[in-house]
Amino acid sequence: MRWSTRDGSLAWYVTEGSARRTPDGEAVDYLLYGLVVGPDRRFDYFWLSDVMMHHDSLGMRVERHSRWRPKRLDEIAPEMFRSQDKEQED
Q1: Beta bridge partners of 71
Q2: What's this model's pTM, rounded to 2 decimal places?
Q3: Looking at the predicted structure, is the pLDDT value of residue 84 above 80?
Q4: Cα separation, 12 vs 26, whole angstroms
């Protein structure tokens, strides 16, 4: 699953998650884990409710990309998966 701002300044690539539930079992939020792309790229945990509070530079809310198809992480952020030998060659 991918969420992002329309201006492309932030994106969240979800790799896993779990629901936070009320005592009667109703899902009220989701703790997600995945790649967060912004000024830097990092793997992190984040709440879906926190993601939904972000706005882009035009004031538009975050969107879920329903047509986005899963990719391998090395396709999304190849620089995070370079070997040390490859970095020394560059």
Answers
A1: none
A2: 0.76
A3: no
A4: 24
